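Hi support team,

I've been running sequence recovery on a batch of backbones for a student project. Most finish fine, but this one hangs at about 90% for roughly twenty minutes before it completes. I'm not sure whether the input is malformed or the queue is just slow. I've pasted the structure tokens below so you can try to reproduce it. Let me know if you need the job ID as well.

Thanks,
M.K.
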């Protein structure tokens, strides 16, 4: 498991099922799963995922991802979308109010979640497969403008 999308999915899974209180602990858990990661890379991954530390009863402060049922608000962050688009989007096209984003295998679900959490009012929802994200725009003819906006984000 070497690609970023797979690593992010594993980190999200580990955080959602355990009480992880430090990056060192997370590095160790990842190593047990066969994933070697530096602290700097892990720190960036946690930022991309929007990981926060919350109090989990007797376990104390532990990492959580806001949409894991912790009750913390989901952060609306367009800068996170820009990073994800530049790293994961392989191609973007549109028709009427539908935008299709191609990704590498396994990355579509993560990218769709990032799009959903970005706060873009022009998008009413996403559907993800393995390597394709389909977005539905609010405007019946909004595909062109959303496609252009996502292409610009992917350039950075």
């Amino acid at each position: 498991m070497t690609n970023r999308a797979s690593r992010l999915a594993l980190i999200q899974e580990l955080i959602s099922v355990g009480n992880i209180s430090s990056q060192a602990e997370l590095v160790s858990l990842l190593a047990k799963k066969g994933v070697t990661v530096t602290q700097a890379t892990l720190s960036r991954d946690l930022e991309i995922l929007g990981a926060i530390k919350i109090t989990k009863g007797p376990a104390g402060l532990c990492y959580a991802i806001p949409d894991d049922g912790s009750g913390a608000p989901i952060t609306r962050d367009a800068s996170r979308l820009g990073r994800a688009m530049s790293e994961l989007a392989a191609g973007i096209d549109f028709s009427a109010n539908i935008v299709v984003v191609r990704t590498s295998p396994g990355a579509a679900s993560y990218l769709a979640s990032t799009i959903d959490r970005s706060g873009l009012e022009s998008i009413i929802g996403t559907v993800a497969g393995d390597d394709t994200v389909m977005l539905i725009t609010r405007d019946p003819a909004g595909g062109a403008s959303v496609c252009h906006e996502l292409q610009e984000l992917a350039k950075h």
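--
Follow-up from support: It reproduced on our side and the slowdown came from queue contention, not your input. The chain is about 45% helix and 20% strand. No action needed from you.
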